[in-house]
Specification:
heterodimer, A: 389 residues, alpha+beta, 2 domains, seven-stranded mixed sheet, 12 helices, elongated, B: 224 residues, alpha/beta, Rossmann fold, six-stranded mixed sheet, four-stranded antiparallel sheet, 7 helices, 33% helix, 28% strand
């Protein structure tokens, strides 16, 4: 006993303007909601893709990020001897003991921001296969030379090929620009680890150690070594990908929670808009509702018809909002990562989960906005409704 | 011997407005035989539309019984009453009450959507109903593309398409010019004579009432 679908659809034609405005209102809220989730997911995706699944990163247990971690040289040497560390053709450990420091650079559009400078060992190419030099050449070990990530080249002054960057009182020459296809490394500057330790008078204490696992299935065995070996008790191994994913957690959650709260507040406006449209729709059709009820249509059929109408408005808003948010996928945003206290460039990323979440959000707006007007329509007294003008 | 199809027994109707109780019908009793054409007349506010609404099952009496084909419809739940209406009553309203966004065909099909008929069966019935009222060539027209008389004929097709036993008509000629009103009355007469429909019609118009077999007058809620 359902009211014909054509009746619901054709009624939109008679209220094009109000329906259009309501759809627009919902689509704007869906757009903001989707954009926030895309931003949060973009950070997560960027940092997750920074790490490799077969690399292990060692950091001090209590350290929140790489800059607050310290690993002494003798520990690094001990880690190199572990059987779980992969060896290259020359039987050298594929391992990079990395000092990580922060420097300031001028942003092209004005102001200063922090940049991560990573000192890397000579195995870095073997460890991070995603790195591609897009301009210049690799830095020379033993020289005060740098290669910079493409995001840094784009955003900062004085970080272009041939420029000189002041680090710890000395000038370092930018000899290459690299890309890692949008990972967090694109927002870093890399140089020789030993040169960097020397420049900062850090002796042989690096921030973190990253190495390739000889056999991924031996990761649990490695964890046991770190739990049982007295010299390693203060350190924790993590799969590099998981390490960076965890680094995104705070910022990603912060954006998600703040953004969701703001969008929920916006959504009240959209729901009130939908409610007003639906009340007007009921008010304009009182006699039609009375006629259908007289003919034998049940209250629940009327309720369903108006709820369907409200849901169609909401779903149309969701489609427009989602299409609009697709435009963001080509955009890059750069901001300070709270974990590393340095600049991180990331993109807006859409995922099936985000599409489903925004659909649920739009449907909830449609249900909340349409419910009271639909109940009013269903509860109209037949005799009074038939007398309406 | 003719069968009694509608039996109104001691029916009263009161409306409550704030603390005031307004009596609209007072202890009405009468029977209608199957196939009768009854006209209810009376001045405005006499209770004739209220009585029609009670017979049609869209309103409930305060006191009394309305027995139609042996069922006391005053005792039916809202859901049962809706189903009963869809099977037993055809409605004709003064202002036609067609759904503006539906074509003539779709308007007539509307009550059939409440039945279990297949799409092809519904199509046959709608085409037959529209041809009876002489609008077989206007099936795809929307109400705004039809004249008042044509709209009322579509409404009549909608009233008969489910083949109900009773047709209730509330001022069916009230909004029509003389010629259209005559066409509508002729149609109602045919429905009564050829299709044996029991018709209850509320009207102010004595010439419309003259088509009926029985005329009942109401005044201030009483049959006179």
């Amino acid at each position: 006993m359902t009211v014909p679908f054509s009746y619901i659809i054709r009624n939109f034609k008679s209220r094009k303007l109000t329906t259009g405005i309501t759809v627009l209102g919902i689509s704007m809220v869906v757009f903001v909601f989707t954009a926030v989730l895309m931003m949060s997911f973009g950070i997560k995706k960027t940092l997750k893709s920074t790490g490799s699944a077969d690399n292990v990163k060692i950091a001090r247990k209590s350290a929140n990020g790489e800059i607050s971690s310290i690993i002494e040289g003798d520990i690094v040497n001990f880690i190199k001897t572990l059987p779980q560390v992969a060896k290259d053709s020359k039987n050298q450990a594929i391992l990079s003991a990395e000092p990580v420091v922060i420097i300031n650079l001028d942003i092209k559009t004005g102001g200063l921001s922090n940049i991560t400078v990573r000192g890397v060992s000579d195995s870095y190419g073997e460890l991070r296969k995603q790195i591609k030099l897009i301009q210049g050449r690799p830095f020379t070990f033993g020289a005060r030379e740098l290669i910079v990530g493409e995001a840094i080249d784009r955003k900062f002054k004085g970080a272009q090929l041939g420029s000189k960057v002041k680090i710890a009182g000395d000038y370092w020459t930018v000899v290459g620009i690299f890309s890692t296809d949008g990972t967090g490394f694109d927002s870093e500057v890399w140089g020789d680890a030993l040169q960097l330790l020397n420049a900062f008078n850090r002796g042989n204490a690096v921030s973190t150690v990253t190495f390739k696992l000889a056999d991924i299935s031996k990761y649990n065995e490695l964890k046991q070594v770190f739990k049982s070996e007295r010299r390693l008790l203060q350190f924790e191994p993590k799969i590099e990908q998981i390490y960076y994913e965890e680094q995104s957690e705070f910022m990603s959650s912060f954006i998600k929670i703040l953004g969701t709260v703001i969008t929920v507040i916006f959504s009240f406006g959209a729901m009130i808009g939908a409610m007003i449209t639906m009340y007007a729709s009921v008010a304009n059709r009182v006699r039609e509702i009375g006629t259908m009820r007289a003919l034998g249509f049940l209250r629940r059929s009327i309720l369903t018809a108006f709820m369907t109408e409200s849901l169609i408005i909401a779903i149309a808003g969701w489609i427009f909002g989602t299409l609009l948010s697709l435009l963001l996928t080509s955009q890059k945003v750069s901001t300070l990562n709270f974990n590393s206290f340095s600049e991180l460039e990331f993109g807006f990323s859409l995922s099936p989960d985000i599409i489903i979440s925004s659909l649920v959000f739009a449907v909830v707006m449609g249900i909340v906005g349409g419910f009271l007007p639909a109940v009013r329509a269903a509860r109209l007294n037949i005799v009074s409704a038939l007398r309406a003008n | 011997m003719e069968k009694i199809i509608i039996s109104i027994e001691n029916v009263s109707k009161e409306y409550k407005r704030d603390s005031l109780s307004i009596s609209v019908l007072n202890n009405i009793t009468f029977d209608v035989q199957e196939g009768d054409f009854l006209a209810l007349m009376g001045p405005s506010g006499s209770g004739k539309t209220t009585l029609l609404n009670l017979i049609a099952g869209i309103d409930q009496p305060t006191v009394g019984k309305i027995i139609i084909n042996g069922n006391d419809i005053a005792k039916l739940s809202a859901t049962s009453l809706a189903k009963w209406r869809s099977e037993n009553v055809g409605f004709i309203f003064q202002f036609y009450n067609l759904i503006p966004v539906l074509t003539a065909f779709e308007n007539v099909e509307l009550p059939l959507l409440l039945t279990k008929l297949s799409k092809s069966e519904r199509k046959k019935r709608v085409e037959l109903a529209l041809s009876i009222v002489g609008l077989g060539d206007r099936m795809d027209h929307y109400p705004k593309q039809l004249s008042g008389g044509q709209e009322q004929r579509v409404a009549i097709a909608r009233a008969v398409v489910t083949d109900p036993a009773i047709i209730v008509a509330d001022e069916p000629t009230g909004d029509l010019d003389k010629n259209s009103a005559a066409e509508v009355l002729t149609l109602l007469d045919r429905l009564n004579k050829e299709m044996k429909k029991t018709i209850i019609m509320v009207t102010h118009d004595p010439s419309a009432a003259s088509k009926a077999h029985i005329i009942k007058h109401l005044e201030k809620g009483d049959l006179v």
